[in-house]
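Before the break, one more example. Copy the sequence into your notebook; we will annotate it together after we see the structure.
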Amino acid sequence: MNEQQLDAVFLALANCSRRQLLDLIAARPGCTLSELLDEFEISRIGLMKHLQVLQDAQLVLSEKRGRQRPLYLNAVPLQLIHERWSEQYRDFWANQLTRLKYAVESRSIEQKITTKAKDKV
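Here is what the structure looks like once it is written out:
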């Protein structure tokens, strides 16, 4: 995913109405613009503009079936962003958690040894 595509996805997700649209399309695969209009208090043109931003970001796909255009969520761009950001930090956090685990375990062992030594005295 290049920077321009990444910007398009973040631009699309920056608006709460578009995020709500994505949620509805994900919950109702194959829904149409007319069905979505019932969920919003905006004009048909306004909703079409929001859908166009989502389609430009390739988050929503549509196919023409006669006079209707069923809408479908395309989660691939979201998955690519997730992988890009999570992979970058996964190794760092795995290392930090491993270090924390060893620190806690070694402290626990030291406390057991100290407690046994005090009990013997």
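The longest helix spans residues 76-120. The mean pLDDT is 90. Try to locate both features in your own notes.
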